[in-house]
Specification:
It contains no helices and six strands. A hairpin with a 5-residue loop joins strand 3 and strand 4 (about 40). The two termini are about 15 Å apart. The protein is about 0% helix and about 40% strand. By secondary structure, it is an all-beta fold.
């Protein structure tokens, strides 16, 4: 649930963990950059890492079967 960015030249790395309301990690959640074809999927422990453009504001979209998609 906590995300942080670490600058690297023209990109930043965002890392986080996706959990449900009971804080159970969710594996297989799609994490996409809004309006782009770039993304990743959460690991078995719910963690993900994605590189994003450091100079542009972006939104991440999280989708998972049986849950509401959020950004």
């Amino acid at each position: 649930n906590v995300f942080y960015a670490k600058n690297k030249k023209n990109t930043a790395t965002v890392k986080g963990t996706v959990t449900d309301d009971e804080r159970t990690p969710l594996a297989g959640v799609s994490v996409q950059i809004l309006n782009q074809n770039k993304g990743t999927v959460t690991a078995a422990d719910g963690t993900f890492t994605i590189n994003i453009p450091a100079q542009k504001p972006i939104a991440l979209v999280f989708s998972y079967a049986g849950f509401v998609t959020i950004q």
